[in-house]
Task: structure prediction
Amino acid sequence: MSRLHGRTLYVATAIVFVASLVLFTISGISRFKNGNGIDGVIGGIGWFGGLLLFLVFLVLGVTGIVRAWRRRAATA
Result:
């Protein structure tokens, strides 16, 4: 069961990273980057959502590294 839980963390990390890239890409489209009204809102959601998801990606990455390090230290 522990192996499945670890893989779930890595899959979630990959999904969050891809979603972050998609949001950053949306915020970089010139229509949304320099838009007014709903286009500006979509660009803002893309930018701040991408930043938030990248922060979540970093936290999940550090969590995975710490878990692997603790698991390796426990077996040694």
Observations:
- The first helix runs from residue 2 to 28.
